[in-house]
């Protein structure tokens, strides 16, 4: 029997391949960044061909580096940046346009128009999502309306849509030579086109966005014992490996954190932040600005749902300090710089570069640094950036408690920013709860591997995965309640200053 399971984690800034053993231990990894294309303010694109080339490269490199062959892998799972939209020609394999990234705001007028009439309520009711630039439906509509030849190709059946999981699955299984066109329920739930109850594409929603049904991939379970397909013998793995799982990155992190029971929650710190609460088989509709989404579906079992608070800019705000402002050399420098000051010195940074996501859903907001005086230094700005990550997470946690009645006692955390000890201490202080990081912090890839392994019997049951979860570090709150509330009041005042900046 094969000894390992592999996972491709196709993220917003990079693509990695990780290989895990039966104990959930990382055996190998390789990672490559891809270009961030920003042709206009608010526009964010990726080159889908570059993403596929990076995926092939990381698969080949990680296998060669460990001297592995396809027979050593029981299965391959995929996890991916969600909502990012690719439309390609099924006959040539060429994209009609760059991938429009989830952060992109060019569809703000489409979203605003939908929110002004009954169509917005229909989308909320059926898809569990507010009309927003974040999701795929408006991005597909924009491509069909603005890219020459795209609408005509879609009408004749030559254009395919997919989030990056579908794009990779299609290429891994043959592309123009019989590649499978599939997605899973978690990614489909982020399009504004799927009915959350039926788990199928919905004709009324398709009509709203003008999307032909035959563009869309088949919706399958997240962990599929029947496989989506197998890798090709002449592909990057050099042999046939079952492609048995796909999940959006935040749902994969829920599986990787083993948040498989109702009431369990995690927060992933990446380009953005994503706090999810497992609500079990109950579909909980938010009244406080959160999203209702599919958490996962294993085989023929009923789907498990989640409430989600999506935050657009957290880790990418640290990247902005490095790339645009030049006040840090790397992500780790943000911690050492911020440690030079005991607090933010009255300075707040609201990184609303793509508007504000949960719980505000304000595409008219833009970033602001407020409360500055001559006293403030670059260290205060670095500290305010870390605090912004944590205050945005509190916004979501408070909304989640109102919707669910579940009060957080421990917050499981994962993702790259969790390597920043100061940021995690601030998070514990801002929330007033214990923060716990697992040994394997890259839980998106681990979750995809778990789902793939469950499908082929590499792991027997979901409960077996709990034995693999181990804590690496925890942080306890140190602020007084007065400090906590005073800081949060300042944050809410800062958020107010960002609103109504862009006319939509």
UniProtKB/TrEMBL annotation:
Domain called Carbohydrate kinase FGGY N-terminal: residue spans: 4-256
Catalytic activity from the UniProt record: glycerol + ATP = sn-glycerol 3-phosphate + ADP + H(+)
Function: Key enzyme in the regulation of glycerol uptake and metabolism. Catalyzes the phosphorylation of glycerol to yield sn-glycerol 3-phosphate.
Protein name (record): Glycerol kinase
One term of GO molecular function: kinase activity
Regulation: Inhibited by fructose 1,6-bisphosphate (FBP).
Residues that, per the record, bind ADP: 12, 16, 271, 315, 416, 420
InterPro entries: ATPase_NBD, Carb_kinase_FGGY, Carb_kinase_FGGY_CS, FGGY_C, FGGY_N, Glycerol_kin
Domain Carbohydrate kinase FGGY C-terminal: 266-455
Keywords: ATP-binding, Glycerol metabolism, Kinase, Nucleotide-binding, Transferase
Family as reported in the entry's similarity comment: Belongs to the FGGY kinase family.
Taxonomic lineage of the native organism: Bacteria, Bacillati, Actinomycetota, Actinomycetes, Micrococcales
Binding site for ATP: 12-14, 271, 315, 319, 416
Residues that bind glycerol: 82-83, 134, 249-250
Residues annotated to bind sn-glycerol 3-phosphate: 12, 82-83, 134, 249
Pathway where it operates: Polyol metabolism; glycerol degradation via glycerol kinase pathway; sn-glycerol 3-phosphate from glycerol: step 1/1
Alphabetized NCBIfam families for the sequence: glycerol_kin, PRK00047.1
CDD domains listed in its UniProt record: ASKHA_NBD_FGGY_GK
Pfam family, one: FGGY_N
Highest rank taxon of the organism: Bacteria
EC number(s) reported in the record: 2.7.1.30
Top class in the EC scheme: transferase
């Amino acid at each position: 029997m094969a000894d390992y399971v592999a996972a491709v984690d196709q993220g917003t800034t990079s693509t990695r391949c990780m290989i895990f053993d039966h104990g959930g231990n990382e055996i190998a990894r390789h990672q490559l960044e891809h270009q961030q294309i920003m042709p206009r303010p608010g526009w964010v694109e990726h080159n889908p061909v570059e993403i596929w080339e990076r995926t092939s490269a990381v698969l080949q490199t990680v296998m060669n580096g460990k001297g592995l062959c396809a027979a050593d892998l029981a299965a391959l799972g995929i996890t991916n940046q969600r909502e990012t939209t690719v439309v390609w020609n099924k006959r040539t394999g060429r994209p009609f346009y760059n991938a429009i990234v989830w952060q992109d705001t060019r569809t703000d007028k489409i979203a605003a128009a939908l929110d002004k009439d009954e169509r917005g309520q229909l989308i909320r009711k059926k898809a569990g999502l507010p009309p927003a630039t974040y999701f795929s439906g408006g991005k597909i509509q924009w491509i069909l309306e603005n890219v020459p030849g795209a609408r005509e190709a879609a009408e004749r059946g030559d254009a395919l849509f997919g989030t990056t999981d579908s794009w990779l699955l299609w290429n891994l299984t043959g592309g123009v030579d019989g590649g499978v066109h599939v997605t899973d329920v978690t990614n489909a739930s982020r399009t504004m086109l799927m009915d959350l109850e039926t788990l199928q594409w919905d004709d009324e929603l398709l009509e709203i966005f003008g999307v032909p049904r035959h563009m869309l991939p088949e919706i399958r379970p997240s962990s599929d014992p029947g496989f989506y397909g197998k890798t090709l013998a002449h592909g990057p793995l050099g042999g046939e490996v079952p492609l048995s799982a796909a999940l959006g990155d935040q749902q994969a992190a829920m599986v990787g954190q083993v948040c498989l029971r109702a009431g369990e929650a995690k927060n992933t710190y990446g380009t953005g932040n994503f706090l999810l609460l497992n609500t079990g088989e109950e579909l909980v509709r938010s009244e406080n600005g959160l999203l209702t989404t599919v958490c996962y579906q294993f085989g023929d079992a009923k789907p498990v749902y989640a409430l989600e608070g999506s935050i657009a800019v957290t880790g990418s705000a640290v990247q902005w300090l490095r790339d645009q402002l030049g006040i840090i050399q790397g992500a780790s420098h943000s911690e050492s710089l911020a440690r030079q000051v005991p607090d933010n010195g009255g300075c707040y940074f609201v990184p609303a570069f793509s508007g504000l996501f949960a719980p505000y859903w304000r595409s008219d907001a833009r970033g602001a640094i407020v409360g500055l005086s001559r006293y403030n230094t670059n260290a205060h700005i670095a500290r305010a950036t870390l605090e912004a990550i944590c205050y945005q997470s509190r916004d979501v946690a408070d909304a989640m408690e109102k919707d669910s009645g579940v009060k957080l006692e421990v917050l499981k955390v994962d993702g790259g920013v969790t390597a920043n000890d100061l940021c995690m201490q601030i998070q514990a202080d801002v929330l007033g709860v214990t923060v716990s990081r697992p040994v394997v912090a890259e839980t998106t890839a681990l979750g995809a591997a778990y789902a793939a392994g469950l499908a082929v019997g590499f792991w027997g049951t979901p409960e077996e995965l709990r034995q693999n979860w181990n804590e690496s570090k925890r942080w306890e709150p140190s602020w007084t309640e007065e400090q906590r509330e005073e800081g949060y009041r300042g944050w809410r005042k800062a958020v107010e200053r960002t609103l109504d900046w862009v006319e939509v």
